[in-house]
Amino acid sequence: MLAALVIVFREVLEAGLIVGVVLAASRGVAGRSAAVSLGVLAGIIGSIIVATFAARISEAFDGRGQELFIAAILLFAVVMLAWHVVWMAEHAREMTQQLRKLGSDVGAGTQSLFALGAAVAITVMREGSEVVLFMTGIVIQGKDTAGELFVGSIGGLLLGGAVSLGLYFGLASIPLKRMFSVTGVLVTLLAAGLAASAIQQLSNAGVLNVLDTSLWDTSWLLSETSWPGRILHVLIGYMDRPTGMQLIAYAATAAAIFGLAYTRRAPAGATARPSASLSA
Amino acid sequence: MSLYSIGRSTALLRTSPALVFAAALALAGAYHFVATAEASDEMVVEITIKDHKFEPSALKLPTAKPIKLSVKNLDASAEEFESKDLGFEKVIAGNSGATIRLKPLEAGTYIFYGEYHEDTAKGHIVAE
Predict the structure, then answer these.
(1) A77-97: per-residue pLDDT in tens?
(2) Which domain holds residue A196?
(3) Which residues of A touch B18 (CB under 8 A)?
(4) What is the ipTM for the molecules in this complex?
């Protein structure tokens, strides 16, 4: 039972941490709860579909299907998160003012809400499909321990959700003045980590064969399979054995998002602009 | 997510520099896909999973040669075939198979395991 709990907890936590950070990063955006809820719902439905076709996805492209599929998902998530960070940077000042003075939310365009929901959906779908496969496995096996394993899995689901909520409230308690910078940096590094993971998938698929040996190994110091290692891997993209290409992808993604957010951020002293006029 | 909003967002994406980066990566990937598509001298190694155990669980493989692991999961339940040492993790649905491509190995021992049944699904590769 404990083993099932740990396995499900691990998968849920990976998605949950991302959702928690993204949710905190979009505080003050009207309609974000609906976008995130819809994203989670779409992600769960997507999980079931992906799990159903898991074998066929895996066999596609001469056995490279799963890697290419995950890489595409990850890169899509990176673009959505980048978009979101840049949008938030453009509106952070306005958002802080509104939250502080009026306690009201800033109206966001459908497009930025779409980016938010899509990032959540795709993240939930990726980890969720593994949870679905694991849990259906328990049912299919039909052993006498199935009930116990199922309870463990549900426990893992709830625990993963609880820790993610904890992270969200932790981030949300940061004073407003700092919060958007903290969450902006966090989402940026998170996205950079996803880009590096996409590179690993492409490398595993054998479609990217340059700079693909690991440059160093810090697993003795902090293993990616340990709990702190796992959490840091999700939040800031920690890698214990990064390859050259992964580091390049990480740095390039982080630099691109920081650069875009910096150049497009609202200038000091600017008054709130009509927020619906999103230009990107 | 309606088709309408997807359409609108793709229009927006066209102007998004972030997408340029993603597209560049995809192109690079496609290029290498073509570059490596020619039949290489991959060595094919088969591993089966049954009752949450690997058969064989100990493999001796040559170094400096690309290897293609063909894993058949004969159990009804899914398994996550994973190796931190070799840098892959792959979910294999019940009663199906999966392919894992390994870059040429350096001499050494590499542990692999099934994450969903870690107490029984264990194995290793010795490259020499």
Answers:
(1) 999 999 999 988 888 888 788
(2) 2-264
(3) 78-79, 82-83, 86, 256-257, 260
(4) 0.82
